[in-house]
Amino acid sequence: MKLIIDTDPGIDDAMAVFYAALDPTIELLGLTSAFGNVTVDIATRNALRLLDRAGLDVPVAAGAGNPLVLPPLPPSSHVHGAEGFGHIPAETPSRRPLDLSAAEFLTDMARRHRGELVVCAVGPITNVALALRLDPDFARNVKRVVFMGGAARVPGNITPYAEANTYHDPHALAEVIASGVEAVMVGLDVTLATLLRSDDFDRLARTSPHLGGFLREASRFYLDFYRGIGNDGCGLHDPMAVIAAASPEMFTIETLGLSVVPDGEQQGRTVLHDGDEGRIGICTGGDMEAVKQRFLAAFD
Ligand code: BDR
Ligand code: CA
Questions:
Q1: Out of 109, 230, 236, 276, which residue is the most buried by the measure of CB atoms under 10 Å away?
Q2: Confidence (pLDDT) at 101
Q3: Catalytic annotation, pick one of 6, 8, 13, 189
């Protein structure tokens, strides 16, 4: 499967990119960066750093620095650390991003690989909305957009109502839904159904010192954050979206109407409905333990 990951790296974003690098069914064509966990400049640098570490010479295109409509929130440094990978210090990557914007790169690649390209958005979905605005054919050219975000039948994580990615840019998600592009939502309903614990990261570091060791180091900060909110382990958010893109048969996917609350107290809340408008695939279940094992086994 031809894949571009749109990302705001971020610790679980690093897990997602490394998983994509290791899954033999995935052909990673590049990364696009967005604000969210960190600023877009740090996200772009971190995307390049992850590719350096994974030994992948594929392009990175820098994307949106702000949501479409709302004022930007401060980066989530209390969750991912000031530089995005917990306590791991900043590092200059070996390469530079493309001169193209993320939206330009996405639309170009969707045209070049018409009907084959899957875009997996694991940050605020702003770049996908910008690609849809830039090229009216993007919705048809792309095979599918799989996004990590939302909370269909469970509470949010950034507020009681909203998951962080949809909270950051609900207007972008509304445009993606309205475009009619084939889309699949991988939200907190599934991504918090199983957790990665410190012994899982020890296993990753043992079986894959270079990639898994990096994740174990970064995860110390992430696990501390989760411990602070009462969880003995962290969510598999972004890697689960990549696994859903590559292996959708591992998930229960219900096709339902989806809308998103644009502002106010419930900003970013994803709401299911029975109408004909805005129907997309919603991941609502599956064997999440098997998904976790799929993730861990990729590093063996
Ligand atoms: C999402 O928010 C970000 O902090 C994570 O990287 C993930 O994409 C989880 O709500
Ligand atoms: Ca992310």
A1: 236
A2: 98
A3: 8
Residue nearest to ligand 1 atom 10, measured at CA: 164
- HSE, side-chain direction, 13 A CA sphere, residue 269: 15
Q: Within 13 A of 120's CA, how many CA atoms are on the CB side?
A: 31
| Annotation says 87 is catalytic | no
Q: Which of 37, 234, 244 is nearest to 120 (CA)?
A: 244
Minimal-distance CA residue to ligand 1 atom 4: 37
Strands (E), 179-222: 183-186
The helices-and-strands tally (H runs, E runs) of the chain is: 13, 9
CB distance 169 to ligand 1 below 6 Å: no
204 membership: H or E segment, kind and range: helix 198-207
Low-confidence residues in the chain, pLDDT < 50: none
Instruction: Calculate the CA dihedral of residues 160, 166, 170, 172 and round it to 10 degrees.
Output: 180
Question: Would you list the DSSP string of 71-83?
Answer: PPPPP-HHHH-TT
C-beta neighbour count of 171 within 10 angstroms? 17
